[in-house]
TrEMBL record:
EC id: 2.5.1.145
GN (gene name): lgt
Entries under HAMAP family matching the protein: Lgt
Subcellular compartments: Cell membrane
Any single GO CC term annotated in Swiss-Prot or TrEMBL for this entry: plasma membrane
Keyword Transferase: yes
Protein name (Swiss-Prot/TrEMBL): Phosphatidylglycerol--prolipoprotein diacylglyceryl transferase
Main function: Catalyzes the transfer of the diacylglyceryl group from phosphatidylglycerol to the sulfhydryl group of the N-terminal cysteine of a prolipoprotein, the first step in the formation of mature lipoproteins.
InterPro entries reported in the protein's UniProt record: Lgt
Keywords assigned by UniProt, alphabetized: Cell membrane, Membrane, Transferase, Transmembrane, Transmembrane helix
Amino acid sequence: MISYIIWNVSPEIFTIPQIGDFGPFPVRWYGLLFAAGFLVGQQVMIHVFKKEGKPLEDIDSLTLYMVLSTVIGARLGHFIFYEPEVLFKKPLEVILPPYAGLASHGAIIGIITGLWLYSRSRTATGQTFLWVADRMVIVIALAGAFIRFGNLMNSEIVGKPTDVPWSFVFVQNTEFRQIPRHAAQLYESISCFILFFILLWIWNKYKSATPRGLMVGIFFVWVFTLRFLYEFLKENQEAFEANYLLNMGQILSIPAVLLGLYFIYQSRKSTHQLAG
């Protein structure tokens, strides 16, 4: 007997009715969870700053850098990696709604850029790039969990057909709704939640003594190794990926994993030098 989960959740929570010439405005789970990642993440960073004696007035600036760099990076990344022809033919689509395409690899590149811009004027307070990045990955892991759960609520980024008992039938997805499939979004969401608790535990244990780059390295290796593997369970996002041995998500994950290994190696090397 084949068992599966019928997933027929509406992506919309409610709709704000039309007021004059404006509206109506649907309020969606994805948008709420996306925003929650930043709001909850800000509270985590406030806790970190208090414990390590960093100026709390910098939190608002850090949050603004992260919001802008995440959205811009994810949006540009989608067009550069998946629809480059649109970027050149219709560049305004990058900034105009609806924002249907967001690429996580682009978001990471944007976040790295944003952290560098933020930290370069704050080294006097000990907020070097690696200090900030090591703590921000705690928040990014949590935000990733929220966003991937938002993808589940949207019935998007679905997995390939399967007969495992925890498979989902995505009723709201008109393209793939008929066949039980892997809930790849849920797999990634759970993985990010686990990583959040691991990174939070490491920071809570070492705080200011955390080896520089260690948590960044763990984040990259964990997230992108699992991303590489999960892609085997997912439907391709774009048609051109069917012609490749590996899809775009896997190709982009390989250098990210190597970068993570480099950060871990450097953090261990620095720790040994300090111990010596």
